[in-house]
């Protein structure tokens, strides 16, 4: 029923976080929460939706957890533990457990866990996605994903990973780890990998945005959290214009800007302005959000302020001198200083980015603009070989085929 679906979307993370705090065990929290929602499916149609669904689910889940512990304790003759846990103290209402959800997020994103485990555990424990949903999203077998989540929970238990918000000195590094997980989820939805999947997965981008909004509500003063949310919103706003009717990826400069989501653009711009007004040196997510704000401020691609985009990339390079950032900067330089200058910058990155499809796609476009047909075709071929997104591969193939027969004299 719709009320249970809505409650699951809104309350799952709260319920699991509350139970994790009380019982200190992710398995117990997850299973008791699932049983509580199953009870809601059975009872709410007949009894009616309770006035406070979150409190009802939390209370029910607590009782389910206690019943399970009593059964296991009785089987293992641990009566004292069961007696200690079995009480009728009402759980804290959902409004009072916001910190519990924050603790849960930091636990799921602990650096002791591998990146894939952090992503899967966060989507399951905080987001409430089912194991089949997560497995489908990341193109792995359901059994493999279930094992990954189980191993992550076991490691948390055996390594005694604390269920807490990091101390002040730890917090900046740990927040960046949380944001990296959320951005990975978003990117997999925004530009999905794998030949047998949809090129764009709105469910994953929406879930990443929802979880980032949650972190933003819990850490409202953190500039990078706001920056990541703004970045996601400004990218998501363009989603309706990113894939053509024939299934090709549509580059930013060719998109129908009238199809962009004006509400998401406005919200993203507001967050960017708020961070600028704060007068605090921005981090990488805030700079990336500002770059996207420049792009989405232009009514036509010809109105884009490329000098501002390059200046922002210059600022980003100082913080994150990675080859991927340098590659993206070169794309902007091409619009400001011409393709020849940009190609020289791109070619310097070959050793670091030879296995990255976007490097070869960028070279192909620059060589195309310089009239170097044969070299452009070879670069397109390499980009298509490496690309994992079906819509992107289709776009690159069409661009390559538009070159026609290369003139023998062309390099």
Automatic annotation (TrEMBL):
RNA polymerase sigma-70 region domain ranges (all copies): 14-75
Location of the region described as Disordered in the Swiss-Prot/TrEMBL record: 71-93
Compositional bias per record (Basic and acidic residues), positions renumbered to this chain: 71-86
The organism's place on the tree of life at top rank: Bacteria
Ranges of residues in domain RNA polymerase sigma factor 70 region 4 type: 105-156
Domain DUF6596: residue ranges: 174-274
Annotated transmembrane regions: none
GO MF, one example: sigma factor activity
GO biological process entries: DNA-templated transcription initiation
Annotated InterPro entries: DUF6596, RNA_pol_sigma70_r2, RNA_pol_sigma70_r4_t2, RNA_pol_sigma_r2, RNA_pol_sigma_r3/r4-like, TPR-like_helical_dom_sf, WH-like_DNA-bd_sf
Key word Transcription present: yes
Keywords: Sigma factor, Transcription, Transcription regulation
Keyword Transcription regulation set for record: yes
Family that this chain belongs to: Belongs to the sigma-70 factor family. ECF subfamily.
PANTHER family (alphabetical): BLL6612 PROTEIN, BLL6612 PROTEIN-RELATED
Name of the protein this chain belongs to: RNA polymerase ECF family sigma subunit
């Amino acid at each position: 029923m719709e009320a249970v679906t809505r409650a699951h979307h809104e309350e799952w993370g709260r319920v699991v976080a509350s139970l994790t705090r009380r019982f200190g065990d992710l398995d117990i929290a997850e299973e008791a929460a699932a049983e509580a929602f199953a009870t809601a499916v059975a009872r709410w149609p007949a009894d009616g939706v309770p006035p406070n669904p979150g409190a009802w689910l939390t209370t029910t889940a607590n009782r389910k957890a206690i019943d399970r512990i009593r059964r296991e304790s009785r089987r293992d003759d641990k009566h004292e533990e069961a007696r200690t846990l079995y009480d009728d103290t009402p759980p804290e209402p959902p409004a009072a457990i916001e910190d519990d959800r924050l603790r849960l997020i930091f636990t799921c994103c602990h650096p002791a866990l591998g990146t894939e485990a952090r992503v899967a555990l966060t989507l399951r424990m905080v987001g409430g996605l089912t194991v089949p949903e997560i497995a489908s999203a990341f193109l792995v077998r359901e059994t493999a994903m279930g094992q990954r989540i189980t191993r992550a929970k076991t490691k948390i238990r055996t390594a005694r990973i604390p269920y807490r918000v990091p101390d002040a000195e730890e917090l900046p590094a740990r927040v960046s780890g949380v944001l990296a997980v959320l951005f990975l989820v978003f990117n997999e939805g925004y530009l999905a990998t794998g030949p047998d999947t949809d090129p764009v997965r709105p469910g994953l981008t929406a879930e990443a945005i929802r979880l980032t909004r949650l972190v933003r509500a819990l850490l409202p003063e953190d500039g990078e959290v706001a920056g990541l949310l703004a970045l996601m919103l400004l990218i998501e706003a363009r989603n309706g214009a990113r894939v053509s009717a024939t299934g090709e990826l549509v580059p930013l400069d060719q998109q129908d800007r009238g199809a962009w989501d004006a509400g998401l653009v406005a919200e993203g711009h507001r967050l960017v302005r708020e961070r600028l007004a704060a007068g605090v040196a921005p981090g990488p997510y805030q700079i990336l959000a500002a770059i996207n704000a420049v792009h989405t401020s232009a009514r036509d691609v010809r109105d884009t302020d490329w000098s501002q985009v390059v200046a922002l990339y210059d600022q980003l390079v100082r913080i994150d001198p990675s080859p991927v950032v340098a590659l993206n900067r070169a794309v902007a330089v091409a619009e400001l200083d011409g393709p020849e200058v940009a190609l020289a910058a791109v070619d310097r990155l070959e050793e670091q980015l030879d296995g990255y499809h976007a490097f070869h796609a960028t070279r192909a476009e620059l060589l195309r603009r310089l009239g170097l047909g044969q070299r452009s075709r070879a670069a397109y071929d390499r980009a298509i070989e490496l690309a994992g997104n079906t819509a992107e591969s289709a776009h690159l193939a069409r661009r390559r085929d538009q070159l026609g027969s290369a003139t023998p004299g062309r390099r």
